[in-house]
């Protein structure tokens, strides 16, 4: 948008899952409702690097979505397997 000096009203739609995935990769917990802003900030460059790297390697879009979804599922699964705080 900055290069062409124009924007569209629907730019950025469907990026909600990417934002959630970046936070989960950074260490935010989906189950315990605990998160750390700094760790989420470290998850964002990791996720963006993954996304850009796959785009530079000309990996097909649907395969990119499968890989990103698999990483999100793995991060959420590791979160579920982690120690539970306050468990009775």
Describe the overall structure.
- The structure is a single chain.
- The chain is an all-alpha fold.
- The chain has one domain (16-80).
- It contains three helices and no strands.
- The chain has helices at residues 16-26, 37-56, 61-81.
- Helix 1 (16-26) crosses helix 2.
- The model has no long low-confidence stretch (mean pLDDT 80).
In short:
Helices cover 59% and strands 0% of the residues.
Topology record:
Blueprint: H1 16-26, H2 37-56, H3 61-81
Give descriptors for this structure.
88 residues; mainly alpha; 59% helix
Number of strands: 0
> What is the number of helical segments per DSSP (H or I, 4+ residues)?
3
Order of helices and strands: HHH
Question: Could you describe the largest sheet, including whether it forms a barrel?
Answer: none
Strand content: under 5%
pLDDT < 50 runs, ≥5 residues? none
Helix content percent band: 55-70%
The 3D shape can be described as globular
Radius of gyration: 16 Å
Secondary structural class: mainly alpha
Give the distance, in angstroms, between the N- and C-terminal Cα atoms. Answer: 51 Å
């Amino acid at each position: 948008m900055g290069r062409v000096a124009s924007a569209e009203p629907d730019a950025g739609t469907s990026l909600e899952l990417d934002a959630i995935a970046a936070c989960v990769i950074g260490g935010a917990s989906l189950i315990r409702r605990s998160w750390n802003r700094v760790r989420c900030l470290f998850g964002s460059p990791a996720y963006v690097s993954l996304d850009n790297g796959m785009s530079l390697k000309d990996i097909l879009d649907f395969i990119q979505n499968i890989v990103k979804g698999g990483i999100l599922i793995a991060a959420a699964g590791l979160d579920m397997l982690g120690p539970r705080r306050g468990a009775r």
